[in-house]
Amino acid sequence: MTCAIIDDEPLAAELLTSYAEKTNFLHLTGTYNSAIEAMRTLRTQPVDLIFLDIQMPELSGLEFATILPPQTMVVFTTAFDRYAVESYKVNTIDYLLKPISYDNFLSAANKALKAYELQQKATSTATQPQDRFIYVKSEYKLVRIFLDDILYIEGLKDYVQIHLCTPQKKVLCLMNMKTLEDYLPQPEFMRVHRSFIVHMPKADIIDRLRIVFGDNYIPISESYKETVQQYINEHTLN
Fold first, then answer.
1. For every residue of 33-54, which 3-state class applies, written as one string?
2. What is the pLDDT of residues 74-131, one digit of tens each?
3. Phi-psi category of residue 227: left, alpha or beta, with phi > 0 → left and psi -120 to 50 → alpha
4. What is the DSSP string of 155-199?
5. Alpha-carbon distance 140 to 123, whole Å?
6. Which of 33, 60, 74, 226 has the highest CB neighbour number within 10 Å of its CB?
7. Closest CA to 50 of 93, 98, 106
């Protein structure tokens, strides 16, 4: 994942540069001391992620973020917490307060990596036509299941149970969750718990940390909470 650092404080820029260089999934393409300087290069050579200071002369980080390509992710790095709310009006992954530890830097970078991987999977799915049905082995037979009929998938040790909406039934098959997760289009089908994959467009009600399907409540585990919340935010009208 390519990244750049923009910070007009030399010591802060040097520290972030050292953090990026020792993070194996980041490829640092440049460190800049102003948004104006960065703009000249990033206009023709965009990056996936920018670690961006807010208070800078001529053009602030918040102003610069609004002119970035929509797919460019931003982690704001600042000594001031008063811009936090305004920062999330752009494609913000995280908001780090100086002085920034490597633990906090790495946590933000990992959030960006998860979002980047989702982008890549979505792009791959969009460019590769996929049949809207699957065959699964159930009771020694191959059963065809249309993706649009799936409500959610439940992991049961060595089996998975596919809960359908039309007609109302369940299909039990010998398969692991990872196989289905890798095959099904994302983020349409999203892992929300170690034991559950949910067909998100079918989720009528999301109640705190649960997705409601009639009388059934699907828990959202802490490890998947952030990814689910990002999906919800992208589909929520304020």
1. CCHHHHHHHHCCCCCCEEEEEC
2. 999 988 877 766 766 676 899 999 999 999 999 999 999 999 988 877 766 555 556 7
3. alpha
4. EETTEEEEEETTTTEEEEEE--HHHHHHHS-TTTEEEEETTEEEE
5. 36
6. 74
7. 93
